[in-house]
Amino acid sequence: MTSHFKKPRPLTRSEGAYRDARLFVIATEDKDAPKNYFSQFKNPRIQVKVLPTEDCRSSPKHILQRLDDYKDEFDIGEDDELWVMLDTDHWIAQNHIKNFDKVCADAMQKGYQLAHSNPCFEVWLLLHVTELKADEQFKRHSDVAKRLKEIQGSYKKESIDPILFSFDKAAAAVKRAEALDLSPADRWPQKTGSHVYRLVKKLLSDGR
User: How many domains in the chain?
Assistant: First the structure.
């Protein structure tokens, strides 16, 4: 498909928005948390579009295909960025890690960027409200959710607290995540951590 047949860049023409705003498209296996989190980001120079899983097709291969389809449908600009955001959870288990690694390699070859979390996106949220020591490891999503509940009293993907997890606190979360990222060349955090900071760092920098 050529660009002639593609739809115009899907920018929201809200008041004050720049006509040449950069577009960040994020494909994620999650249905609620990333979409709710990034909906808080408001800047006329940048627009963020999250493609959540709404059809139960949440494997890494399906997430990558969703991003491919979006790129084929819309006339994505040279300065726009496309990101794949996955939880390692069971994808790095022995019977899945080969396929997961291939999806990551394919995404990078297409020019997409990676923002994975180990074990889940909630680690990124947790870094907004507390530091994590290098030896503090979480194996499952339920472990991270439990820690969030201990801190804030409750946690639901469907209703992320806009005060606790605001973009005002994102700069601190970026620093904490960077401190945990001891092997930045890796395609995903090998231990508890989140590469979502790489995306948010760009949003905070480019949005000024």
Answer: 1
